[in-house]
Specification:
By secondary structure, the chain is an alpha+beta fold. 34% of the residues lie in helices and 23% in strands. It has a domain of 211 residues: 2-Layer Sandwich (Chloramphenicol Acetyltransferase).
Length: 468
């Protein structure tokens, strides 16, 4: 039987265009050890572990006539050097130069005729640091058969990469006749799929995606609130092909202090800081805010399998991410009340009995946030962009150092994709005492995204100093 793309995975390919590439990215910054960490060592590290990620050596093959969804086939011309690329900044490279490079890289679509991922080894950062920028298509990481590359190459202990010898042998690509025969055989069993496949391929992607989201059942995501159009605002615009990327660095201890003072969870405080920042950003844009003004956020949250009593890797990273809609109270001037409103909104999810505590997520092997952010993007991609304004993913990471080979991971910033009518996406990851925000914005609509980053820091300071 052919390894056919699921309806959801195929939909990500159908709706993609030059303005909305459907991949999830990350920016990992490492300290170069005394023993060195170069491009060749990274190639050895990634190459040695691709055996655990067979999807990373496969490409998408379209069925003639679009009689069925595309299939995954081994890339007979797979070239690791094509996917793992070398780049450099003019020394001493600044963080601003790195993030400008990230914005350009993340705006480019992945080549559809090759396996749908890329990694860039960026040298020249000041302080003898290097960066690894990754891009992985949303159709690749499903959390069941495939996790994110960033999760697999990071370990809790440093160890030099062993020289890699590629012994992989690709399977022969099916012929056009075989693809058609398989498609016809499946169509006889499920004739309605033929109509859906042809509609999707004929650029009726929006209607197709809506159909996919309705029929997925429990496969990809669960909507946790009543669906209604999102309030309009400066972030609800048709995005361009350009991107800007900005980051915010904060300390986990500050969020814990606010939680201890006012209750709730660290995630509540993160969302409250973002809400406060969005409030100030909207005011700086001249938006008229009333006490009831809100910005609707799609907040994907990990859930555990209802049949699994214990936290475990299969239960947590098993394509179970709930798409939870929260109306962020940007019209509320009081920081503590904003936090409490958010806490009440999330309470429904917590009371469902299926929420995953941070301690459970941290039991997942490797650097789990890399995979969980990808699953969050899948959950967002399965829904209509008209029902939310901004996507916010927050995944807790390990509070101990992680290593790629012998290079210690210093910081990790998620790069979440933009939907067609969302000009801002925010990814948040906690790691080794820090909380790191990655802000991906449309270059036209969110040209002042750097200001928003500073406002997140100010909103956190406001929460720290807030009293009843």
């Amino acid at each position: 039987m052919p390894d056919r793309l699921s309806a959801l995975d195929a939909s990500f390919l159908y709706v993609e265009d030059h303005a909305t590439p459907m991949h999830v990215g990350s920016v990992a910054i490492f300290e170069r050890p005394r023993t060195g960490f170069d491009y060749g060592q990274l190639l050895d590290l990634i190459g040695a572990r691709l055996a655990f990620l067979p999807r990373y050596r496969q490409r998408v093959l379209t069925v003639p006539g679009h009689l069925a969804r595309p299939v995954w086939v081994d890339d007979t011309d797979f070239d690791l050097n094509y996917h793992v690329r070398r780049s450099a900044l003019p020394q001493p490279g600044t963080d601003e130069q790195l993030f400008d490079l990230v914005a350009r890289l993340i705006s480019r679509r992945l080549a559809p005729e090759r396996p749908l991922w890329e990694a860039y080894f960026v040298e020249g950062l000041a302080g003898d640091r290097v960066a690894l920028v990754t891009k992985t298509h949303q159709s690749v990481v499903d959390g069941i058969g495939t996790i994110d590359l960033g999760q697999l190459i990071l370990d809790a202990r440093p160890a030099p990469p062993e020289p890699f010898e590629d012994t992989w042998t690709p399977r022969r690509e099916p012929s056009r006749a075989q693809l058609v025969l398989d498609a016809v055989s499946e169509t006889v069993q499920r004739p309605t799929e033929l109509v859906e496949n042809v509609r999707s391929a004929a650029d009726d992607a929006v209607a197709s995606l809506g159909k996919v989201a309705e029929t997925l059942g429990g496969v990809a995501s669960t909507l946790r609130t009543v669906v209604s159009p999102a309030p309009s605002g400066p972030l609800n615009v048709r995005v361009s092909g350009g991107r800007l990327f900005s980051v915010v660095r904060t300390r986990l201890e500050d969020f814990r202090k606010v939680r201890a003072e006012h209750g709730g969870t660290v995630n509540d405080v993160v969302l409250a800081a973002i809400t406060g920042a969005l409030r100030e950003w909207l005011l700086s844009r001249g938006s008229a805010l009333t006490p009831t003004t809100t910005v609707r956020a799609l907040v994907p949250m990990a859930v555990r399998d209802a049949e699994t009593a214990e936290f475990s890797t299969p239960a947590l990273v098993g394509n179970q991410v709930a798409a939870f809609l929260i109306d962020l109270p940007v019209g509320e001037p009081n920081a503590v009340l904003r936090l409490q409103h958010i806490g009440h909104a999330i309470a429904e999810h917590l009371e469902s009995g299926r929420s995953v505590a941070a301690r459970g997520l941290l039991k997942v092997g490797g650097f789990a946030p890399a995979t969980l952010h990808s699953l969050g993007a899948r959950a967002a991609g399965s829904l209509s962009g008209r029902i939310f304004t901004v996507m916010v993913t927050n995944s807790p990471g390990p509070q101990v150092p992680m290593y790629a080979g012998e290079a210690r991971l210093v910081e990790m910033f998620p790069v979440m994709p933009l939907m067609r009518t969302q000009a801002l996406a925010i990814g948040v990851t906690s790691y080794h005492g820090g909380v790191y925000f990655g802000l991906n914005g449309d270059r036209k609509a969110a040209f002042d995204i750097g200001l928003l980053g500073g406002m997140i820091e100010e909103a956190l300071e406001e929460l720290k100093g807030a009293h009843w």
